[in-house]
TrEMBL record, chains A, B, C, D:
Residues 1-21 are annotated as: Disordered. InterPro entries: ACT-like_dom_sf, ACT_dom, Formyl-FH4-Hydrolase_C, Formyl_transf_N, Formyl_transf_N_sf, PurU, PurU_ACT. It catalyses: (6R)-10-formyltetrahydrofolate + H2O = (6S)-5,6,7,8-tetrahydrofolate + formate + H(+). This is Formyltetrahydrofolate deformylase. It comes from Actinomyces marmotae. It comes from the Bacteria. The keyword Methyltransferase does not apply. Keywords: Hydrolase, One-carbon metabolism, Purine biosynthesis. Catalyzes the hydrolysis of 10-formyltetrahydrofolate (formyl-FH4) to formate and tetrahydrofolate (FH4). PROSITE patterns: ACT. Belongs to the PurU family. GO terms for biological process: 'de novo' IMP biosynthetic process; one-carbon metabolic process. Its EC number is 3.5.1.10. The lineage of its organism: Bacteria, Bacillati, Actinomycetota, Actinomycetes, Actinomycetales.
Amino acid sequence: MTAPATTPATAPATPSEPSPTAHLVLTLSCPDRPGIVHAVTGALARRGGNITESSQFGDEETGLFFMRVTVLTRVPRSELEADLAELASTYSMRWELGEVDRPLRTLIMVSKDAHCLTDLLFRARSQGLPIDVVGVVGNHEDLRPVAEFYGVPFRCIPVTKETKAEAEAELLGLVDELGVELVVLARYMQILSESLCERLRGNVINIHHSFLPSFKGAKPYHQAHARGVKLIGATAHYVTADLDEGPIIEQDVTRASHADSPVALQRKGQDVERRVLAQAVKWHAEHRVLLNGNRTVVFP
Amino acid sequence: MTAPATTPATAPATPSEPSPTAHLVLTLSCPDRPGIVHAVTGALARRGGNITESSQFGDEETGLFFMRVTVLTRVPRSELEADLAELASTYSMRWELGEVDRPLRTLIMVSKDAHCLTDLLFRARSQGLPIDVVGVVGNHEDLRPVAEFYGVPFRCIPVTKETKAEAEAELLGLVDELGVELVVLARYMQILSESLCERLRGNVINIHHSFLPSFKGAKPYHQAHARGVKLIGATAHYVTADLDEGPIIEQDVTRASHADSPVALQRKGQDVERRVLAQAVKWHAEHRVLLNGNRTVVFP
Amino acid sequence: MTAPATTPATAPATPSEPSPTAHLVLTLSCPDRPGIVHAVTGALARRGGNITESSQFGDEETGLFFMRVTVLTRVPRSELEADLAELASTYSMRWELGEVDRPLRTLIMVSKDAHCLTDLLFRARSQGLPIDVVGVVGNHEDLRPVAEFYGVPFRCIPVTKETKAEAEAELLGLVDELGVELVVLARYMQILSESLCERLRGNVINIHHSFLPSFKGAKPYHQAHARGVKLIGATAHYVTADLDEGPIIEQDVTRASHADSPVALQRKGQDVERRVLAQAVKWHAEHRVLLNGNRTVVFP
Amino acid sequence: MTAPATTPATAPATPSEPSPTAHLVLTLSCPDRPGIVHAVTGALARRGGNITESSQFGDEETGLFFMRVTVLTRVPRSELEADLAELASTYSMRWELGEVDRPLRTLIMVSKDAHCLTDLLFRARSQGLPIDVVGVVGNHEDLRPVAEFYGVPFRCIPVTKETKAEAEAELLGLVDELGVELVVLARYMQILSESLCERLRGNVINIHHSFLPSFKGAKPYHQAHARGVKLIGATAHYVTADLDEGPIIEQDVTRASHADSPVALQRKGQDVERRVLAQAVKWHAEHRVLLNGNRTVVFP
């Protein structure tokens, strides 16, 4: 995205005067080898950083190492970034440096179903969900009042087969203009183009229903009803060009019974969807989700 | 099976002397229409039966009606059966009459994994699971000691492509000889032939792993690991000729994380498997599961 | 309450012309004895009623019998009521006759926390929660905008020690005036007087946090944090004069860890609270909850 | 205990020849301050140790820091211990060094209920629960066959008010003789003396039922039934002199309904008990549980 989380929004304080204390969150991954944690914590310690939370994971299968560490520091961010860049080069690291208390600039995309949007906006306002919802985009007008009740600008961008390219261009323009860092597909019933998926890779979260066994195609709740499933689930995942197959962030289920009609199943499903999506967005916004190929490492 | 649950094992008491009180469970299904509950409860009431538990369900979609009722009665069973047979003819009912406190004669089939067998035998002995395990059949010798510790005869019936027909004939012989009413596939890693499935229809319960999304083919836990699933599940279902697609009785899941190796996932899966299988067997043995086409109605 | 659920809001159709089909829900309890189900279903069948759902439960301990039955009927309601009154006298029944598709007239009471109110209003509008929220009463002004966004009148009735009697009188006036059938205390941080509890008995639902073990007194989430609990729960119950000890309708929990601050625990708690309260209100509004002394029978 | 986890069972390899690779697990806690992780990982890195898993937690409230790290190393254990001892003195650390693949020598204590014992023995044999059950002690003879089936010596130590001191002395003798590192009270219905609790502090795990709300005194499941609870739970905790109030390791619940008799509730409770106890024992045996005053830090 245009305003990556790793770029300071304002110019760093000049070195001559001490910076105020910042609470930063560093996430990184690299090929595993001895000494990484020591090197990283050394870079932080030399700058007087105090680690407040830290998790690591070494994937034996892929040989990759993952780390998330939060640190209180008074050192100017630019100096820390220089140190990390050096480390990154030594260890072939991919890394990001975010701020613990800065909510992610988030764009929510919707169609007509209100359950996920309502829940995200409520949690952002009252329940400490660390996102700053800078806009809601709908391909229909239905949810404008919900966005506006929460004081969030709503933009309607209708999509047809003919206007899809144009609509996506408008969307990308908005992403740039608003400095969007995270896009949440909150039951946005449109498929993003491959190029858009690629462009926003790792920064778009989607939610969809899930069952055991799973069903492809239309009317999934009718299929689930016909099959007599006893559990209704939902999966939140990063969007990739491979529809509904991106890296899974979170999943959950709720119980169903023979007495549930397809509509009742759908309502139970929507309940799980909003809960799972909110959890996934929270973890992502707290920089707790790291990509590991087509999987995720989540440090909850 | 040879000894259906609806047949009294001993001759009924002669009408001249009052029968002892019996606690019976009646399950039935038929096309829905006004008056069924009244007619059924009337048949029971006229015989002085006292209803202790009762559930009904009308499936709007299929137009079928389902009922389970438990009743305390002193009337000879044969008379009750005569009344019910008449009702059944009027309402085109399928029905079964079981005894609340009589454990089902159960045969458990296994291969090498002990988790489901151990759990079922323990629950049958100590936790009130209402089954009488009359035998354990394994296609390997591995679990003989487990069966014998619980005082249950173990029979090893190896199966190869060449001997499959013969092995199934031996199995059916055992089912007849032991008066088996329920067969539980407790991680029995063999596929039953179509004819055997048909022969034992509605009386064979299987357990298998389940994921969201689901995976076909070999090494499912490795596939689940590769996909990074956050839930591991299991499904208990009646066996039909359509492998792993029979009517679902019960499902459940447990949480997984990126830190779980394929082996760890498998162990978590086994934990869910034994829990889900025990629940399904309990409900079946308590006559709480009714077939509704390819689905079940469960009155828990 | 002034407008009991069993009273038809409009005059019954005259017997000379057939009534339109109504979908009614009958709930009843009485001392258990043979023949009750037969008698009740007979009363319904004689009037051409078709049972769509039905559940019964006999409590062996108290000797009480509970029944819920939904029925499609064209018979005038007054005639059905006459029949039921006769039955009730024979069997010493307590009974209520409601309408399946008529949402309960509901008053929600709040203080400052928005999570339960927001959730109930959303579910009533979009998720089929069968309540008609006719008013929101707050002892503070904070949640007026939420109510008004959903088009529900908000009344602020402040409460102090001195004005408590007066405030409750105003509340009761509102209950009468609006024909309120259900009062939901959605984190209303005031204790109702004994007389008010008595007056509205069985029609007021409250939600409160729950832990294992439980904690009395102020700052419960700080206590739970200090004790290091691994689960955070909530209980929805009918309000009685015995504070927080009324009949339990529903309970649930969510996981917590050492990393959760008291604030994080509270947010998790609020998540469970709104889910449990919504479930309890749904079951109550669908006439699925019957009182059994200080317990409930819930037919889900 | 007599054979602390930090003492190598065999003499360390002489420095002149390289040790075989060991997989060690280090747990530590100390007052929080900058540089701890760097110092600890430095000590490991200097010895060529490769970190395979690592978690940290800083408790803002108590100002304490907790760390668990697993490391592959070829350095002789004694040298690593010398380094750690030095670090520990600098940072006022409490620390323990265990082996990842060495099962804990465990003594299980029982009375008459088999569910927890059966489950632990099964999981130790077949499900990778990393404990080596070196003995089972019962105050009754009932469970001797279960222990012996799993090839574990059973010792009956009856306890009466008069013989309690003597019985505990025998128990302690056994703990010393067998080199016991962990004692699990698997429904052992006796209260340990204060001095015994103190002597084995942090190495005894107990399981007990839990409800929302909680109940004190006898027949808890009858009380839970009378109160109409909708959840049945269990808590695993370290034993302290303050009965049932030691640091909580794990909790879980299962659903109950009005239809559950006290016996049914108890069976559901036993199901949760064995699951929660097994989870707590697993985490403890994997050195994932650290004491934080009267709470625990669990790195799952």
